[in-house]
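Lab notebook: predicted structure, single chain.

Context: the supervisor wants predicted structures on file for every construct in the current expression panel, including those that have not yet been purified. This is the next one on the list. No modifications to the sequence; it matches the entry in the shared construct table.
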Amino acid sequence: MIRLGAVGDVARTLPAVSALRAAYPGAHLTWLVEPASRSLVEAQPGIDEVLVFPRDELIDALRRGQLARFATGWLRFVRRLRRRRFELAVDFHALAKSALLAYASGAPLRVSYARPYGREGSIWLATARARLPPPPISRFARNLGLVAFLGVAVRPAPAPLRVDPEVRRRLAQALGGGPGPVILHPGTSPGTPHKRWPTEDWATVARTLASDGLRVLVSCGVAPDERAAAAAIVAAADGAAAPAPETADLEELAALLAQARLFLGSDSGPLHIASLVGTPVVQLIGPTHPIENAPDPGTPSRSVRVPVACSPCRRGCAAAVCMTRIRPDAVVAAARSLLAASGPG
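Prediction complete. Output recorded below exactly as produced.
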């Protein structure tokens, strides 16, 4: 399987891969992924092997004009692919880069999407192309549609992202016991600051939920700007929120989120991880498409969105009007609705 790219895109491929594993229990399943999502994929028991595409190394060589180094790194990786003698490549990414990697693997059968989901000429390197309903459809449905094209029966699987019991126990110990917390996650990937919500609005939500008797924690990634944003929210909440336990990788993050009563965040990888471990989520969605980026349909969720003329968009903007117009009372109402439906923590 090939699914490169952002953590959220990789996470939303997991139900489809789970369906493949159920259909072919004796097959050797290898997942080709980029470094950022490696720990998430490696934690899944249905994956036999994880190959990491050396994206950063190759990009660095190109930026420095070191063409010989680039060619050496590319050929070394292609040889690794070829040695495995793959029979089938399933390209969930469906861009030129992933299609080229599928072709380079030597797999005689290469399955991907037809247009419009197969882009950048990727359809020409596939030997079979799945025709799906026209957009918009969710990323979950798109990935499951590719599996169904292979003749695999697709059945709903609750919490398709598995968390190692020992990792879960360690994170439970870090939480210190008691009812599950409400976790706020204000961060997004470095390239999508337009998905972020203002600090004071997050702090208002934290204060309101804390006044309901809930334990509120703020989680973040390892990037300095994410840490700074989380710290600013904790400070502005005036004691209503505390930092969440630190997590070393995506497996630990999944274990932390699995123990929360509720997760609140923007359209991001951690939000989709939370929904895949079965934690109810409130999604604050602005520039991205609300249907294509909906949380896992098997998990209770609410999406809070204020439609504006320029949303959805692909590039985002500094003003991020679609995010700043979301009001804290709407987010609190969505949170309370989910908490009421799920019962006491």
